[in-house]
Amino acid sequence: MPSANGKIVTWCYLFVHHTKVERVNEKLKERFNTFIHKSIVYKQVKNRVKKEERPTISGLLFVQGDNCDIQRMLHEIDPALYLMNDCSTHRTAVIPDRVMQAFIQVSQMDENRIRFMPHALSYYSTGHPLVRVTSGVLSGFEGYIVRISRDKCLVTSVGDITVAIGGIHKETFENIETYAQLRRKEQNMSVSSSANASDCWREDIKQYFFQPENQLDVIVMANGLHRWIAEACRWMNAGNYMDAMDVACLILKTIGLYFHSAYANSQLSRLKDIWSVCQEANRILVALTENQEVPADVKQRIASERQDLSVCYPFLFLKNE
């Protein structure tokens, strides 16, 4: 659904009490596109089995449109209704239209291909390859290949919802970590092993960096770093403030180091993927600064680190429009 100016509008979502879903959905459909993921269930009714379609997740409702306009209408319908926030940014969770359309298309082909997962996407990173789908309906999706109930699945994120999409055997993939390793090898770069096991995450982050030479390089680096942004958010929410700060600062410093020349390179002018990582890392630092539970010495160090970054790499904090 394009807006008045022809721009493709994103999607967002909310949870509604199951008794109100139908009424809220009908009201929203007067102005917006909506979608409810449904599954087929079978019930024993007397002497026969009855096939029934029902929402997969009770009360989950996707809506396409400007999130401010949607929220205003929700307030008119019921003041208690709110769009869901992204847990890492604490802002309304937004789903690009291309992602949502692929999600809807897969659901329409076979609703049972999609499973809603109980954990955040970062939970599935251990022991599973990070890939980018390069063919089929899901082309452009990133996630982890996980075998669930003998089915090869892509575990990915739709907004802030983790889903596993099964039946992906015919799709082709690009292993992001392997690509990064090959690019580092081509540039004669290596990552030294840390003697301290608790600091091994530093080397893990640095392995995604190399001198960017094309758009794919930028995308690969950004995709690899999003996993560590999610991990930093998890640490922050768990009260591990120092490590969350260190991850965000290391990501910003290393992006500054590798992208200061690319920033002025017209051939790499489309750097929105990596700027998105910068903004997310910066939001973590801001959130830590505003959190009353974070110790004063940590906040002081954050202020010092951000000051140094703004002097050495001022472009890191520019929003990419």
TrEMBL record:
InterPro entries: NGN_dom_sf (IPR036735)
Gene3D superfamilies: NusG, N-terminal domain
Protein name as catalogued: Transcriptional regulator
Organism: Bacteroides gallinaceum
